[in-house]
């Protein structure tokens, strides 16, 4: 097993919680491209910051590395039947039920809806005073993901309110660190989560039952329609509980992530006015989306919302880069460190969309979506949402920073988001 810090596990946990990116950088500077982090209650975590190692992890056979097991932190939210927590055949079957809902074609089909909703959202944002955009971005991406799941006609407003309340828990450590759930400062958050979860489950099951009774509702082609038309390995229709867990998986994976990517994008634009000017010119002149695309690629490089891919649990010994890992080890391809390696990206801490103006990202060293069988199926939708929101915002608004310094990253469940909740000042253009 690669070496790592000798500090007690609690101290290592506190460091990575308090300053995730700086701690990862420091560990690489001390121990190189492969290092082990020990935190209480989980097997040693092996971070792999070398693209060749990361690729080997992504490409490993399904029965050798299990990413499903590595996602157990979110089980209370997504439910035990979630395909995100499954491995091998069960995982692939689960993805196949919803694959069509995530295709590039589906994202194109939703384009007009996404653009219209982004425009309405931006029109409601206050100007000329600091505003924290993260909560608004989460509500925006949640309403979009609910529409793609339930169709345009379903009444999901109350469900959205209940989901956002339920997911307040992801801002606390009780999801990532189960032992904290029953400790006094966090016990209240956990109880509130369980109460909200009951409300969310009841609404989800009611929507599923209503659609089963009237299959033509929803406008057709949405994710719920796909799930109701699918069958399990024995040819039986998917159960209510299974559909509920699949829907909740997509809700969770599909909105906090995109909201966080948008929060980083808006924050970076606030601190880099020359990038804003170039984007605004491109939008005004209507000459394609070359600079916008490069900017989004650079946001996802510089500020990947997943600092590492979902941990892969070793199920059979595997050798990678000269190290042999044994059953039970956890391997984490470290997206952040690969994206911040000066051997791949000169001056990696500089935000510079020009890196991607003349060439598309190289998948060996640009991996905001993870990789292999687990690679994010929602990436087309995410890109469409980010582009629509930035276009709607920059068309009417100038973004200014609300403070002198760019915010650092802080955890929100298993992803990171700007510490200041994307606080900016918006000015009418
Ligand atoms: C900028 C936004 C997003 C980012 C950066 C992102 C990134 C990721 C990453 C890194 C993974 C894990 C891959 C791995 O470990 O190899 C993942 C998984 C996943 N993502 Fe995304 N994602 C985003 C948006 C979305 C959206 C919009 C949806 C759906 C509407 C979505 C649905 C999923 C699902 C269902 C999984 C689990 C896949 C599986 O278990 O096989 N994501 N995403």
Description:
The chain is an alpha+beta fold and 429 residues long. The chain has a single domain, classed as Cytochrome P450 (Cytochrome p450, Orthogonal Bundle), CATH 1.10.630. It has helices at 9-18, 20-31, 51-59, 67-70, 75-78, 88-98, 104-109, 111-123, 134-150, 157-166, 184-213, 223-229, 240-271, 273-285, 290-302, 335-339, 379-396; strands spanning 34-37, 45-48, 65-66, 130-132, 312-314, 318-320, 323-325, 330-333, 397-401, 409-412, 415-418, 423-428. It has a five-stranded mixed beta sheet. Strands 4-12-9 form a three-stranded antiparallel beta sheet. It has a two-stranded antiparallel ribbon with strand order 6-7. Strand 1 and strand 2 (45-48) form a beta hairpin. Helix 14 (273-285) runs antiparallel to helix 15. The longest helix has 32 residues, at 240-271. The protein starts with 8 loop residues before the first helix and ends with a strand. The mean pLDDT is 93. Protoporphyrin IX containing FE binds at residues 67, 84, 95, 145, 249-250, 253-254, 257-258, 261, 305-306, 309-310, 368-371, 374-378, 381-382. Belongs to the cytochrome P450 family. This is Cytochrome P450. Heme binds at residue 376. It comes from Conexibacter woesei (strain DSM 14684 / CCUG 47730 / CIP 108061 / JCM 11494 / NBRC 100937 / ID131577).
């Amino acid at each position: 097993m690669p070496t790592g810090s000798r500090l007690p596990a609690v101290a290592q946990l506190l460091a990575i919680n308090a300053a995730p990116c700086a701690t990862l950088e420091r560990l690489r500077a001390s121990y190189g491209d492969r290092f082990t982090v020990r935190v209480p209650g989980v097997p040693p975590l092996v971070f792999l910051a070398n693209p060749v190692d990361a690729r080997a992890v992504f490409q490993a056979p399904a029965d050798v590395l299990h990413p499903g097991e590595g996602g157990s932190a979110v089980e209370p939210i997504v439910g035990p039947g979630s395909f995100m927590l499954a491995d091998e055949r069960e995982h692939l079957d689960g993805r196949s039920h919803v694959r069509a809902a995530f295709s590039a074609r589906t994202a194109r089909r939703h384009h007009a809806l996404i653009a219209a909703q982004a425009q309405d959202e931006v029109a409601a944002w206050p100007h000329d005073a600091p505003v924290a955009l993260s909560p608004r971005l989460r509500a925006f991406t949640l309403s979009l993901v609910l529409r793609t799941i339930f169709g345009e006609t379903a009444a999901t407003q109350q469900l959205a309110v209940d989901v956002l309340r339920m997911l307040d828990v992801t801002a606390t450590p009780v999801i990532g660190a189960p032992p904290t759930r029953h400790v006094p400062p966090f016990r209240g958050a956990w109880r509130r989560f369980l109460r909200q979860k009951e409300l969310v489950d009841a609404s989800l099951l009611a929507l599923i039952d209503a659609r089963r009774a009237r299959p033509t509702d929803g406008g057709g082609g949405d994710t719920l329609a796909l799930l109701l038309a699918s069958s399990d390995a024995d040819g039986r229709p998917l159960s209510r509980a299974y559909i509920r867990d699949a829907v909740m998986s997509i809700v969770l994976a599909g909105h906090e992530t995109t909201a966080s990517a948008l929060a980083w994008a808006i924050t970076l634009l606030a601190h880099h006015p020359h990038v804003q000017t170039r984007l605004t010119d491109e939008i005004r002149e209507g000459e394609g989306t070359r600079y916008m695309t490069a900017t989004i690629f650079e946001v996802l490089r510089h500020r990947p919302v997943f600092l590492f891919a979902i941990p892969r649990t070793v199920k059979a010994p595997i050798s990678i880069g000269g190290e042999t890992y044994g059953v039970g080890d956890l391997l984490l391809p470290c997206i952040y460190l690969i994206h911040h390696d000066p051997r791949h990206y000169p001056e990696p801490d500089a935000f510079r969309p020009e890196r991607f103006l003349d060439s598309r990202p190289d998948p060996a060293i640009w991996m905001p979506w993870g990789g292999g069988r687990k690679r994010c199926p929602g990436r087309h939708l995410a890109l469409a949402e980010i582009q629509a929101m930035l276009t709607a915002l920059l068309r009417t608004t100038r973004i200014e920073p609300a403070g002198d310094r760019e915010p650092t990253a802080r955890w929100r469940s298993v992803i990171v988001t700007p510490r200041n909740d994307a606080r900016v000042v918006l000015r009418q253009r």
